[in-house]
Amino acid sequence: MKIGIIGATGMTGKALYNEAINRGHDVTGFVRNETRGKDVLGSDAQLIVEDAFAITGTQLDQFDVVIDAFANHTEPEQNLDVLTHLIHQTRHHDVRMFFILGAGPLLQEDGSYVYDFLKTLPDAAAWVDEPRYGVTELQVLLSTRDVNWTAISAQNEYTEGPKTEYVLGKDHLMHASDGKSHVTSGNLAGAVMDEIEQPQFKMARFTVSDK
Amino acid sequence: MKIGIIGATGMTGKALYNEAINRGHDVTGFVRNETRGKDVLGSDAQLIVEDAFAITGTQLDQFDVVIDAFANHTEPEQNLDVLTHLIHQTRHHDVRMFFILGAGPLLQEDGSYVYDFLKTLPDAAAWVDEPRYGVTELQVLLSTRDVNWTAISAQNEYTEGPKTEYVLGKDHLMHASDGKSHVTSGNLAGAVMDEIEQPQFKMARFTVSDK
């Protein structure tokens, strides 16, 4: 399939790029800086150098699937803004849009957001804006009926690491066999590519955990 | 004050424009079509001819307050998209942003959205997308901490009419002295201009009802 990845040089984007290439897909990375794109993804990588907010729906129509892996940890409001820009650009288009969310918009056992727990932690002020905007990202997606979207949430610990074994979930926080909530970038990328190849979660959010 | 109105030729925009002019403010209407702008607002109206999605934060910095009165009833997803575009453009800017919402994102007595009731009505499918997107608009605003925003919700019946007497509320649906939920465009415009001149609801949503 022809796959575009926005934010291809980030931790998630890179893992998705490599997983998609390994599976034989035709992959293009959207990057802001060509030199960094080549450094991270290889000198033979297909790149489109473009600011995320300049990407148009017409430009995305060439792809079967476009993954929004844009992630700004210091200005997390930009993650929401890129998502809403891409939604606006792809309303009534055919391209399938895939969004990467954090654990904040997953649900706890009582049905409240994981964000509602995270914000009670002592040092939350320093980093809680990212899961807070993640909740809004999910709310925007859930209101979207005219884009062919799918979203995946990571787990509380989301770190760079290889594809090993992973388990899918739907809307609730998961726990790996060690009792903790974690997933590697490699396992998340594996789950995303499985879903791209064999869609189960159309217009829905799901999640993945390390086994 | 220097006030910009986006969607100035619509029912709300026109009422806001006239109320602001009557109070002696320096008002500019953002319109898509200059001829229609002059027809609706008068040949001496100050106009900026611009697509809402092309408006930039830098362009809005010349105003003290900008009111988003853009309202597309046939493609209500565009109301959300204009709101998110304006939020993105005005993050960390000084301009005060005022958003006009419907009754859908008001609360019922039990704390659920008015939208949750509206969607149960027999003919809801034909028109419920607009209050549905209205809920998402409020959710986006409530997650926004870096824009100086205020929002006002109308009531269930929101019709063109003069400024008479009006009563303010906060987040709940209101009922006029006849027991029904309604507000005229003139009364809503009066409440908006009162709030612009004497701010009480910073980073908050409030509502207004006919007396």
TrEMBL record, chains A, B:
Question: Could you tell me which InterPro entries the record lists for this protein?
Answer: NAD(P)-bd_dom (IPR016040), NAD(P)-bd_dom_sf (IPR036291), Polyketide_Oxido-like (IPR051606)
Q: Where does the UniProt annotation place the signal sequence?
A: none
Q: Which GO terms describe its molecular function?
A: oxidoreductase activity, acting on the CH-NH group of donors, NAD or NADP as acceptor
Residues forming the NAD(P)-binding domain are 7-199
Superkingdom of origin: Bacteria
Recorded hits in Pfam families, A to Z, give:
NAD_binding_10
| Protein name listed in UniProt | NAD(P)-binding domain-containing protein
